[in-house]
């Protein structure tokens, strides 16, 4: 297997940032499920408040938000890898950036995709366009939709901080006999 040097022929290993983006997305999924459970338990409400919504509206809207976060993190990983390559060529070291604006954009997009997919699916289920708008108006200020957006921001920031702290070759913990 190749060690990733550009002068060696053969396949290059998958970049650390891309693998980290997939793991961050799974973490986001777990946090959203956990947040939905706690919010439902503490407020004694359902994730989708409309009883006639059917079983697929909530999970599909959540899956859309998760896909949005994955695509955003993959794009951030691609930008990071490109900036690392430029930094290596210029011999300036690893670039350290924590993009707060992109993290907030990811949260807003996840929030909007969650609302949009939920509204569209509810409108299709209820066979009325106006009911989809009512669903969006009801869901926009509920803690579930807000949790989707806030957790997306936090995951994007954590992803950026982990990349900034480790660079392309993150340090791993050493056993006592390896020191």
Structural class by sheet pairing and helices: mainly alpha
Taking the alpha carbons of the first and last residues, their distance comes to: 26 Å
Low-confidence regions: 1-12
**Strand content range:** under 5%
- Biggest sheet details: none
**What is the count of structural domains?**
1
Radius of gyration: 20 Å
Q: Globular, elongated, flat, extended or rod-shaped: what is the shape?
A: elongated
- Extended strand count: 0
Mean pLDDT: 83
- Count of helices? 5
**Fraction of residues in helix:** 55-70%
What is the H-and-E element order? HHHHH
What does this molecule look like?
The protein has helices at residues 16-43, 57-90, 100-126, 129-139, 143-166. It has 179 residues and is an all-alpha fold. It has one domain. The longest helix has 34 residues, at 57-90. It is elongated, with a radius of gyration of 20 Å.
Give a short synopsis of this structure.
This protein has helices at 16-43, 57-90, 100-126, 129-139, 143-166. With 179 residues, the protein is mostly helical.
Question: What labels describe this entry?
Answer:
179 residues; mainly alpha; 69% helix; elongated
Topology:
Layout: H1 16-43, H2 57-90, H3 100-126, H4 129-139, H5 143-166
Helix pairs in contact: 1-2, 1-5, 2-3, 2-5, 3-4, 3-5
């Amino acid at each position: 297997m190749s060690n990733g040097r550009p002068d060696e022929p053969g396949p290059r290993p998958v970049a650390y940032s891309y693998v980290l983006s997939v793991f961050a997305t799974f973490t986001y999924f777990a946090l959203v499920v956990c947040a939905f459970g706690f919010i439902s338990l503490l407020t004694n409400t359902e994730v989708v408040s409309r009883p006639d919504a059917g079983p697929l509206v909530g999970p599909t809207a959540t899956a859309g938000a998760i896909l949005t976060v994955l695509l955003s993190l993959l794009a951030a990983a691609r930008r990071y890898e490109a900036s690392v390559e430029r930094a290596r060529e210029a011999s300036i070291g690893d670039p350290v950036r924590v993009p707060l604006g992109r993290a907030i954009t990811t949260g807003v997009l996840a929030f909007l995709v969650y609302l949009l997919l939920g509204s569209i699916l509810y409108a299709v289920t209820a066979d009325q366009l106006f009911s989809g708008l009512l669903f969006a108006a009801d869901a926009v200020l509920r803690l579930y939709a807000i949790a989707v957006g806030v957790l997306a921001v936090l995951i994007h920031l954590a992803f950026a901080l982990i990349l900034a702290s480790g660079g392309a070759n993150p340090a791993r913990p050493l056993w006592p006999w390896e020191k």
